[in-house]
Specification:
By secondary structure, the protein is an alpha/beta fold. Helix content is 38%, strand content 17%. It has a seven-stranded parallel β-sheet, with helices on both faces. Strands 7-10 form a two-stranded parallel sheet. Strands 8-13 form a two-stranded parallel sheet. Bound molecules: NADP nicotinamide-adenine-dinucleotide phosphate. NADP nicotinamide-adenine-dinucleotide phosphate binds next to α1 and β5.
Amino acid sequence: MSKTLHQRVLVTGSNGLVGTKLVERLKRREDLTLFALSKGPNRIQDKQGYKYFSVDITDTQTLKAVFKEIKPQAVFHTAAMTQVDQCEREPEKCYTINVEATRTIAQLCKTYEAYLLFLSTDFVFDGKKDPYDEKARVNPLSVYARSKVEAEGIVRRYLPKQHCIVRTSLVYGYAPHLSRKNIVLWVRESLLAGKTIRVVIDQYRTPTFAEDLAEGCIAAFRRQATGTYHIAGLERFSIYEMAQLIADHWKLDKKLIRPTTTEALNQPAKRPAKSALNIFKAQVELDYRPHRFKNALALIETQLNPPAFPMPEPLWF
Ligand SMILES: NC(=O)c1ccc[n+]([C@@H]2O[C@H](COP(=O)([O-])OP(=O)(O)OC[C@H]3O[C@@H](n4cnc5c(N)ncnc54)[C@H](OP(=O)(O)O)[C@@H]3O)[C@@H](O)[C@H]2O)c1
């Protein structure tokens, strides 16, 4: 633990789901000074315990000035263009944010000798034969996925001994300010509103509770783990199966969930059919212990309906 004592740590994409969960945890730690960065104004409710910068990561000069000011010793780089269909429609924008800005951040980490933890995706795989471990061959099917493969390569090249690439899958969770929905919030809110939803039966994932992912990333950082790690959920479900479980949990009308296929949905970006991640390496080396999907739903319920009297902080493990 001595290596990480009183480090200056930066989280990019702090307004996003993963960034928020990282900030919530890291700001409570007394052994580091925390900085957070996202494009818009800070939307995290609790603004204590860290300094926030509103910065577009494609603005190289401003990003350089921020690094000069804070001289981070570790960076959790979660900021990205994350909507895969939007990336397909706007490939140049996707490349600028996901590849070029990651190159700038990797360069700056090299300059400041900072450890870089980079968030990547199960979509680097083609989905023909899961589960995938860290050594499996990548074969991206979309603009978003290609941008992540390219960014992974940059991170490895610039920081061969000081990087951690964390590939994750279908992250879900709750925070009050999120700008985009995830599978759990989307299914729950749609069914609560009585809306019919079409959900694919032929795409399989290992859905990842955002709280677990944040814990896994922090475990990697604490160990200064180097290389690639798959940090995802324990269970493999089709997206349709997940929707059923979400409806069961909140006792919502399952008839509103209409099964469909990838072909019928015909989305702009191709998705891998079966992209479950093998998390064995993270379990063994990082002591990563994710929640079961059903237990994570129960925790999200407590976040959505906080008790009238404050309770002790939940123990995530
Ligand atoms: N969510 C998933 O299912 C999933 C699956 C696999 C991998 N990942 C990876 O995990 C990481 C985090 O995902 P997430 O779900 O937390 O994403 P998210 O909720 O979409 O958040 C991404 C954040 O990045 C920030 N951002 C985007 N463009 C930016 C720019 N040009 N400059 C500065 N900040 C910018 C946004 O900030 P503002 O809100 O301030 O605009 C946004 O809050 C991403 O790298 C993603 O590719 C996610």
